[in-house]
Every structure is written in C-alpha cells, then in structure tokens.
C-alpha cells in the first residue's frame, strides 16, 4: 500500500512539473502580422521606438490612444513589417483633429523615405478630411485620393489600405472608397514612422489608437474591431 501511494505521489509530482513547464512556454510569434496598440508602444515598450516631441496619452473609445500635436510629435520605429510581403493590408484606428488641422498630413509611413514605401495620409480642409493611400514599388507609384470622398474631422475612424500583386484598394469604416490597378513588388527595406513622414514633413494632428499590418489581403468582415 505504501509503495502504491508513493508511486501515485511521484506521478502527480512529475505531471505537475510537466504542466508547469508547458504553461511557461511562450506562444509562437506570428510573423505574418504586426499589431501595434500605439499607447502600449509609448507606455510599455519605449525601447522599441524613438520619440520626437511630446506625444501624449489620451482616452479613446477602445482604450488609451496617443495624441500628436501636428508640429513636432512623432514616433519612429526601426522596423520593416512589410518585408517579403507580396500582398498586405494596413489598418488604422485614428481621430484627426478638427482644431487648426494642417492640410497635408502623413500618418503612417513604412519603407524608404523616397523610394519603395507606403503611406496612410489625409487631407484636411473646411472641417472635413479625405483619405490618401499611397504606394511606391519598383518605380511604380499610385495615390488613391478623391477630394469628394470627405468625412468630418474630430471623430474616430477605421481606415485600411489593401495591396495585392495587381491592385490597391482603400476603405473608410469598412466601406470601399477607391480601387485601382497597380503592379506591386514587395517593399523590403526601410523603417516606420507614425505621426509624420520619415523625413519629418507633413505632420499629423490628432490621435492614433491602433495600427495593424497583415502580410495578406484582409477583407472588411475581418478588419479589426471598431
């Protein structure tokens, strides 16, 4: 009887160790996507970014966001999340400011300063803004922009730029705005900036909650929750 109890205790002990070891294993990193809660970058992971100016944490409907002043505030990341992507989707939840908003605003810039790159941009005028999704790849350039597709400043929005090997598409709040043919080759070099172009021109005034980059085509029914 004592031997049986000892064996049972030993098995329980070994099982406990195995469970503890398994539970301590980290989940594998999904290299097919990059998902930034911008407040977390600023607050919890400052070693990942270079901060310019004084971007501030603010409250947003989904949690904390980061507010940029449109003059000096920006975040720079030594990361290239689009490397080797034949298709990609960049989503952003943001709020453009309605107060003294600059006309040309670059919000997300990934890639090189003036060669292969993509940007999420807006134009602000008369209390309204319209979207500009820009891609440059292998000497091809395309800006999807229509000044008639306006939206009120001062509200939260979801925007997306979807790039396939043969086309680019823009969405605002899940609704397709513009689609155009485009011969795309992967953007493999460069860095990332939030709140301004990588060359520190065309500053964004407003708040960003989240930016998600997927190395695939994402359809509106799978966009991040907003």
TrEMBL record:
InterPro entries for this protein: ConA-like_dom_sf
PROSITE patterns named among the record's database cross-references: PROKAR_LIPOPROTEIN
Pfam families found in the cross-reference section: Laminin_G_3
Official protein name in the record: LamG domain-containing protein
